[in-house]
Predict the structure.
Amino acid sequence: MKNKLIVWLVRLLQRFIPVNHTGSILVVSTTALGDTLWATPALESLRASFPNAHLAVLTSPVGEQVLRHNPWTNVVHVLREPVLPRFFSLWKQLRSFETVIVLHASQRLVFPLCALLGARRLVGSSGWNKGLDSLFTDIVPDKKQHEIVRRLELVERVGAKRVSEKLSYFIQPEERVSGGYVVLHPGAKDAFRRWPESHFAALGQMLRKRGHEVLVTGNKAEELMVQRVSAQIPGATTSDPTLSLRQFAGLLSGAKLVITNDTGPLHLACALNIPVLAVFACTDPALFGPHRAEQARVIARHPTCDPCLKRTCRRPFCQLQISPDEVLRYV
């Protein structure tokens, strides 16, 4: 019923909105760190294919930090939540685009917003739009492929040629940190993606015995986890949990190796071309893992439950299939 009402209102309002013919392009990616990094090959391809186009991005606050200093975009607009009170002001900012490409959005109101911009083409993937595919002029069939490739197929729909499949993050010289430490990143937004804290601690102990500096990292929500892991590793240090994404990227730039779960910092390390080792058990690295990243390695196991419970899993024992000794061998 909610979607039917949204579609009806959009169709009604579209009658009064003129269609834009400006040649400008808006790319929408309003979700997390990894999702925005996955958008960078698509942005690079758009800029290479349409060098004179005005190319803008609507993204999240963390996405703005990812795209800061990115040479392929003309402007970055930030979507802040809640969306509803900001809907009209955003509409006024964005109503000048001829083409809108929705790479990924988790906020339902983003889809009617994009449909009301007067764009001649609204492009998205089938099944990714919270049941609002009918608002789009161009729907690209979804299939089993890496998320980077899915995004590239969306920009190819509007005539862009694929020029790269590698992630990009433009770190500035003053943001870099000199280090030489091994980073352990035990956190992830979803608990089912996390290798056990005890395994990270055991690995850290073995690394310290071999003379490696160990830095345990995490954000504010992961602060207690970081403290629990580091407390079990003699001589380990921890990152400041209040670091901005740009500051955190600078910290990663000083690492000689990053060991992490399936989470955003994995893809940030790939974009920075830092050696990274990732542990996967409940998610498919062929879809969500490192892609065209020469410095990345994955240790993966299939889920032990069929079907995988994913976000409802309270004890992801499938992660126990990967031992600290095995990860150490990869190190």
Notes: The mean pLDDT is 96.
